[in-house]
Amino acid sequence: VGNKMIETNNTHPPFRYRIKMRKGSAYAMLKYDFVNFVLHDDISEEFISWLSETYSPEETLFATLNSLPWAPGGYDIETSEDNSTFLSRAVKWQMKGEACGGRWVRAVCVYGPSDLSWLVKQPQVIANKFDINVDTTAVDCLEERIRYRTQHPDTGGMTWSYYKGLPHVKIYQNLTQKIGTQRYSKFLENQKQEWIRRNG
């Protein structure tokens, strides 16, 4: 009702296609082709509309769409934070018993200055989360580090082998090498038609 979700006893009707629902992170780093797919693919649009009446759709959207066989750069394997396969963000969870130098908010560490030594060793591109209304020290220090690395790129810091070794990167590279980048779009369209035939 309005901008609020209200709980009812009504069962949400199933999605029109037999789609395997996935749950994952609300945070994502996306290729342009995948963003275009999310915004313009007819099944994606229908799925987004269907999800709008569910709780926490942002945790289902990218994980589910990414597993569809015609999603550009997508893959149908399970990745987990325990296996360090999340590229998008570094996060500390209270339930894992990790130390938090800031404070816990909804079981997620809001980083403080003493988390900096851990943060700078993480390969993820984004760190979640900070609260500059409480303490700006950690953010200020990281900004200074980024500025320094920008001015002195030869100081290292980026370990490209980590990114190249991620399972989803390997799958995409192997697939495009196998069928060629020119035929990749046609391959994805064929995958979609086959999926619709099996799940329609």
UniProtKB/TrEMBL annotation:
Molecular function as annotated in GO: acetylglucosaminyltransferase activity
Pathways involved: Protein modification; protein glycosylation
Keyword Transmembrane helix (UniProt): yes
InterPro entries: Glyco_trans_14 (IPR003406)
GO cellular component terms listed in the entry, alphabetical order: membrane
UniProt keyword annotations, A-Z: Glycoprotein, Glycosyltransferase, Membrane, Signal-anchor, Transferase, Transmembrane, Transmembrane helix
Membrane topology recorded in Swiss-Prot or TrEMBL: Single-pass type II membrane protein
Pfam families named among the record's database cross-references: Branch
Compartment(s): Membrane
Family: Belongs to the glycosyltransferase 14 family.
Protein name from the UniProt record: Uncharacterized protein
Naturally occurring in which organism (per UniProt): Magallana gigas
Record lineage: Eukaryota, Metazoa, Spiralia, Lophotrochozoa, Mollusca
